Amino acid sequence: xxxxxxxxxxxxxxxxxxxxxxxxxxxxxxxxxxxxxxxxxxxxxxxxxxxxxxxxxxxxxxxxxxxxxxxxxxxxxxxxxxxxxxxxxxxxxxxxxxxxxxxxxxxxxxxxxxxxxxxx
Length: 120
Known about the structure:
Elements: H1 3-19, E1 23-29, E2 39-45, H2 48-64, E3 71-73, E4 80-84, E5 88-94, H3 95-101, H4 103-106, E6 112-115
Parallel strand pairs: 2-5
Antiparallel strand pairs: 1-2, 1-6, 3-4, 4-5
């Protein structure tokens, strides 16, 4: 995937997160560190219902844009939903799960960009 395409996909994901009031949105750039993915998009939610709403909204936004999701996990437990697009992986966490797994610390060598809701 081209970087321009990745940027457009990330923008769709971020807009979908903020539409459902996702919090503490961060973009980790992993492309120089691993082959797992080029980017992680990470956000937090306050409840299971909000995790589901954010994840569903991301899935819907990507689908409307004709972007195929490779894999989805966590829709039963709803403490951590993962949406895998191969080169971009989205992590929607309940606050407690995000603190526990602390992906930002785990990938501490990655450049991290905090994403601010443009409507706030």
